[in-house]
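tokens incoming
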């Protein structure tokens, strides 16, 4: 495994809200997969004590950092705060990663390797070899329809616009005008990829298997999904 695949210069950002059951295990799994990387836990004031547990973990593991936010403002705001934190330091590669084991840490070395030649890399459920496990048929249909709808309206070729396992070169984040991103929920994942395409960045997808969370409660709801779909129209009109 090369130094890049081991995570040298990489920051894996993990937003949390009531993820006490997962945060310690997912951070350890990430560091085992890419021992040269650092982890940034971005906690939105979790009432279950996730932030305090992350602090304790950071105190004994120098590769783990914690960014505390005072309230829950949505996934997009958490990632924007993480990106700002990373850009204020010397990280070369920045990765979005779920706290609930939906994303397999074993995919991280491949993600980082591909970022050597691409500006943005998308861990995709919708390219050959990718997919999802333990999902109901209804959830599969809703997810597939949402991606197809966003792709059609925005006129982009990225197959998995709604996916949350994404990697960015530092230079890509600096070109994306992050302060102009308006979506705060899951629509954030669509908007940041759309902005990457419009900015002329090299975007690459590779197949991953997305698994349902092991513990805790999903933050997805039909209201969040609807907000993401409405944001697609706004992006197109803008």
């Amino acid at each position: 495994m090369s130094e890049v695949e081991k995570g040298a210069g990489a920051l894996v950002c993990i937003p949390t809200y009531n993820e006490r059951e997962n945060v310690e295990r997912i951070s350890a799994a990430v560091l085992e997969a890419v021992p040269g990387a650092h982890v940034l836990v971005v906690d939105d004031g979790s009432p279950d004590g996730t932030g305090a547990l992350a602090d304790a973990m950071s105190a004994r593991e120098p590769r783990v950092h914690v960014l505390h936010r005072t309230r829950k403002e949505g996934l997009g705001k958490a990632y924007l705060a993480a990106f700002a934190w990373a850009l204020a330091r010397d990280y070369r590669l920045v990765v979005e990663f779920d706290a609930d084991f939906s994303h397999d840490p074993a995919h991280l070395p491949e993600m980082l390797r591909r970022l050597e030649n691409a500006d943005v890399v998308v861990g995709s459920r919708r390219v050959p070899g990718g997919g999802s496990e333990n999902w109901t048929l209804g959830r599969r249909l809703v997810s597939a329809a949402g991606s197809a709808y966003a792709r059609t309206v925005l006129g982009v070729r990225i197959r998995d616009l709604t996916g949350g396992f994404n990697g960015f070169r530092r230079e890509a984040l600096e070109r994306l005008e992050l302060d102009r991103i308006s979506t705060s929920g899951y629509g954030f994942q669509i908007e940041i990829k759309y902005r990457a395409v419009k900015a002329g960045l090299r975007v690459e997808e590779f197949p991953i298997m997305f698994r349902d969370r092991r513990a805790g409660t999903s933050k997805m709801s039909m209201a969040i999904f609807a907000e993401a779909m409405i944001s697609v129209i706004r992006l197109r009109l803008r």
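note: The first helix runs from residue 23 to 33.
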